[in-house]
Amino acid sequence: MEPVPGPSFYPSFLLQFAFGFFPQFYQRKWGRIFTALGVFTFLRLPYLSGLPMLGSYQLVGLFLGAILGIWTREFILVLLGRNEIALPKQSDQILTDWMIRNPTGKSNLPIWYSTYFGFILFLLILIVLCFFQYQGLGLVTGLGIQEYLYFPSLSSREAMGLSCKILVPVSLVILYLFSEERSMPTPSKDSLSEQLRFGIFVGFGINLLVMCIQFVWSLEFFSEGTLESVSAGRTTGLLQDSGSASWILPVLSLLWISKLVNTWRKSKERFSLVLTIFTFFFVTWLGLKQGKAFWVIWTISIAIGMIHLTTDLWIVSITKKRITRIGLYFLIPIVGFFTLYGLSFLQKDWDLVELSKRTMTAIPVWKSDPYLALKRMDVVRAELLTICMEGIKNNPWLGNGIGSFPLAMLDPFRIGTKTSSPLIDFPPNFYLWLVHDLGILGAIVFLFYIGLFLWERGLWKQTLLLVLPLFFGVQFQNSDGAFLCFYLILFGEKGTGYSLSFDKLRKTIWFSPLLLILSVGLPLNYALFYSQRYWDFGIGSEFRKTQLKEFQTAATLPPRAPNFEYEFHGKVWEWKLSEYGSARSGKIYLETNNRSPVVEILFLNSDRTLIKQELFTESKLGYSWTGECPKGASYIRLKSRSKLEFRLPRSQFDANNRIQF
Fold first, then answer.
1. Every domain of the chain and the residues it spans
2. CB within 8 A of 231, min separation 6: which ones?
3. Of the candidates 375, 441, 374, 442, which has an alpha carbon nearest to the alpha carbon of residue 403?
4. Is the pTM of this model over 0.85?
5. Is 92 in contact with 80 (CB distance < 8 Å)?
6. What pLDDT, in 10s, does the model give residues 442-464?
7. Span 553-652: which CATH code?
8. What confidence tens digit (pLDDT) does each residue in 464-503 have?
9. How far apart are CA 309 and CA 288, in angstroms?
10. Tally: H helices and E strands in the chain
């Protein structure tokens, strides 16, 4: 959706694709490890190679390579008769070893009874709804997919690209994990979860090394593409930016520390205890150049972890243990307040000190004016919160469409709060995003699938690792965050498999069909209600005319100085004809360096029925047509047999964006 030149796209894409495809084709285990490793090391590969790639592209090559690697491997193994014949003879050693490395995958349920099925269907429906919202209904009229200026300075493809920043990472991560689970040799999740976790921890270790170099040597080391992170003095490793690092660093550190603590408690091995203490101080040191989210997540999680560990070690009675824990929980905010109060006197350029000073200025006005207190804590988030609440009030039940929040910030016609920040961001947390973009009904559908996954796997406690991070942004918007979030939701740290209660109900006659009905029916009903708004959008040049008060211009790029020319890409375009007689005869000149066998102009009436059809004349610098519009013509449509890139001057269109000669 985001226009990127081919020479900039393919080198990174092909490298990522190979990194995901070939290990998966070779063996499940190494495929999972390499994919998880690539998620946390390849995200900014385009930037590191000097290529300007943004947004939804991110890890498309890696996930497509991994998914196709899984499908290709399983398809070929089935064709070779892995499930029907004995392994090949010793003479075919390579083929024999490959089959041994990839034993038969088993699934007890049809694909439509899988918990993934409904979620993937819902995401597919959101993609279709997104397409119609930003591209209009031109496809059903035979126009094909053409670009409009959704806003005077933003094309419809770029507008949909904002939605794809969330849709693409989430969809590819879900589809990848679904493909992995369907090819599992047993219903157990242990091996899959552990192998993914190993790759995650290897990638995390590489990020810790890069963060350490950035901290000690230079923040600009491997930091291309992190936007404002370097200027804010924050380390990012190889993650997307400091926003991702500020929550991924503490969450993965907590997973690693919990693993070391469990190992120490079982084996009493001193090395694990020493490594735990070292990890704590090392990550805390790195946190000095992290955002506010790091300190909130890190301090609260470590405090709760210490309370649970010490009470487990020193208190035997379960009743006394619970009472002690509750009492210590109340001490956390008190100790936190005095810590922040003391830090507020330091003269250090650390985010933790800045957070302390802002907290001290916000507390006095918290009761009288909560919004002012929030502004003193974080002006940008206060503005984002206000914009988000305004959007929720406009469409509380069905939402504004996935990815619509950044589009609302770019909308020059929107009436409401304006942000003082130049950055185009998402709502301040995941839960507000869910209601703003999908509405109450859409949020119910989304959370239904999440709850279903958690119930099926018995991982309710595991999601506590996501509660705090999801209060500090929409962590699904980047591929690294989407992968980690869904790993924790779908598999968890230990890969505990199916819950007994879910597995017991699954075996009943009515349970699986009921889930299938809900999984299909909920998103279809949401789509049915949401699609009602499209009938007011119009088609072709009338797309969103009631909103814009003018006809749409089917252009890829708006006119810019010094030539003030529209730029058009594609094979088909349609414009509304001017109603003035003097503007309906003359010449159209397409300035282009491309060549096409045929370029033709079609005149259509108000019902879009063809009236007349003529060919353009080729010249050295483009194509031209001279003539007069036939009587009754309301639209003209240009068609090119090959993809064409041409320009038309702004004067070719009147004040209402109707084409004139």
1. 553-652
2. none
3. 442
4. yes
5. no
6. 999 999 999 998 888 888 877 78
7. 2.60.120
8. 888 888 888 888 888 999 999 999 888 765 444 568 888 8
9. 25
10. 22, 9
